[in-house]
Amino acid sequence: METSCENSSVNGESPERLALYARLDKVASAPLWAVMSQLVTPEPRPRCVPHKWDYDAMRKLLLEAGELITAKEAERRVLVLENPGIRGMAQITQSLYAGLQMILPGEIAPSHRHAASALRLVIEGTGGYTSVSGERIPMAPGDFILTPSWTFHDHGNVGHEPVIWLDGLDVPIVNLFDASFAEAYPSGDVQKVERTAGDAVARYGMNLHPVEYVPTGSSSPVFHYQYSRVKEALGQVALGGAIDACHGFKLQYTNPTTGGYPMPTMGAFIQELPSGFAGRAYRSTDASVYCVREGQGSTSINGEVIEWSEGDVFVVPSWSITSHWTTGKSVLFSFSDRPAQKALGLWREIRFDD
């Protein structure tokens, strides 16, 4: 028995509704009720997925890239870490970009500036430097370095070995607002160096605080947090403070002039997990990018276990139930968009201490 066209439906919608939708489409409109459940979700539904980038494998690919393209040719010789859930977007999370950058002995990556803010964690190599707003900053493994929005910066390597670091930028946030600007340095590849030794800790004190709420401030006026001093701070916390059941001994990099985050859109953290640590589960709305500074262990992300060791980078999507375990003492660096979420009143966390 045939059903008339007038009584038929598509996906539960009547012909009359479908006809209405077609007319709405012609005037660049759509019915909210058809997409409401996708726009306003009961909980976060991130498109990005848990993933690890093995450092040894990525290092080999970087060295291969170093044979094929110069730092000047590329402007920045970087391998973008693309989340498998959002390939083609040059994003590690839905709000952040990350990449592994390498500069070889004798090379210079030309000076430029852009609206996006950048942070860098040095993974290996000595002899490298980055210059930010006329301040030349030497790079050493574990150092954390900032490039605030719209500051000229270039990189070089006066040493004898490759220097590799992790880049984190808020490019997706800037592009969300259609606020991207960039320009090359007006007078050559390298900016004039006006000062050196810009260690934030030496100037202002440790600039690391136990992880807790701090006010969101403007971009930090300092650029360099030496790992040797950061390790000292971790050691002091481990000696004098109680261990956090979820995070071990965790500190937050801060802006010394405001007590807030070092950048308006990105926060950065360092945590020490003692040998045999079995962390309690935790979740928060800020997707986090981790880089293993020392040691080895594993992280459970919504039941998926990622094994990690020194240099590896892995990502924890928003609102994922997460816990860390270690075999020996380990140190993890991480960054996220927590400051932006807090400024907008969006950030949430849950601890599963029980």
TrEMBL record:
GO molecular function: gentisate 1,2-dioxygenase activity
Gene3D superfamilies hit by this protein: Jelly Rolls (2.60.120.10)
Keywords recorded for this protein, A-Z: Dioxygenase, Oxidoreductase
Pfam families in the record: Cupin_2 (PF07883)
Enzyme Commission number: 1.13.11.4
Broad class of enzyme this protein falls into: oxidoreductase
PANTHER family found in the cross-reference section: 1,2-DIOXYGENASE PROTEIN-RELATED, CUPIN
Protein name listed in UniProt: Gentisate 1,2-dioxygenase
Species per Swiss-Prot/TrEMBL record: Pandoraea cepalis
